[in-house]
Design brief:
CATH class: Mainly Alpha
Structural class: mainly alpha
Number of domains: 1
Number of helices: 11
Helix content: 55-70%
Distance between the termini: 10 Å
Shape: globular
CATH superfamily: TorD-like
CATH architecture: Orthogonal Bundle
CATH topology: TorD-like
Largest sheet: none
Length: 227
Amino acid sequence: MENNIKEVVGTLLAARQYVYSLFHTLLGTEPTAEILAAASSKESLQTVALFDSEDSGAAKALTAALTRAQGLDAAGVDSIRMEYTRLFLGPEDLPAPPWESVYMTKERAIFQESMLVVRGWFQKYGYLPAGYPNYPDDHVSLLTHFIALTSELAAAHLEAGDMDKLCEVLRDQQSFIQHHMLNWFSRYAEDMGKSETDLFYPALARAMADFAAADAGLLDEMLACVA
């Protein structure tokens, strides 16, 4: 592989790891002033901008969502924290349940067959989420964490020059994103839009759905370069 191609692919893998780690943190952790400031920092937005493309508005949408967290005072952080509680914790019914299984069954139930398939993917790569086995593996934050972790692994294979293993990881990511993210992220974002507020998380969910769709196309391009 030519050095310039290797450098571009390595940069994209690192940036993908960052963005998916960002989704993992923001969608799986109660927000603090520090978390929101880091997510909306200049450095964070510069990484997101690497994915700017004429073919997709995903990077711009994510930048706009993250910008909502800039320069917040204590009251602003508290408002976003309350929105997080309403959307992810309850105690009332969640307008947008953050589990894939809910969107795969008429009963909108957790711990369903699709979650077990996700668990199989996690086990293949030695990923054991916190709360296993009593917490559903198909929470949106865990799905994005899986892509972040396997992007780090892909970068290690690239650095070692093992193109076969690199391609295997990228193809697995393709399959995972197609069958466990794109199959419900848009509906999840639509449900997020039913929230009483649209301070931060509904916009973030919409941007995440767009980013995952654009990332599926990016994986095609990366595989064409390294296969």
